[in-house]
Specification:
Layout lengths: L1 H10 L4 E7 L3 H9 L3 E6 L9 E7 L13 E4 L3
Parallel strand pairs: 1-4
Antiparallel strand pairs: 1-3, 2-3
Amino acid sequence: MMQAAEAVCHERGLSTIRLEVSTKNLVAIEFYRRLGYRTDGVLYGYYSWGEDAYSMHKPIVPTTSSPGAPPLTASSHPT
């Protein structure tokens, strides 16, 4: 599923894909790291129940870009 999401972002010319993951979800954090995602920081109280999350990102090489246009990004919110 992550490969499909990254492929769509790549096709749309996005430069970065972002996600948020619970700081307690160690399996998911390791999974994302193995896929090349890096932690940006902590989002304190991110979830409605007060749990913190890590903001993570992965650079994506765009297939097309408009000259002078700023890079685009995508964001997802897994639970």
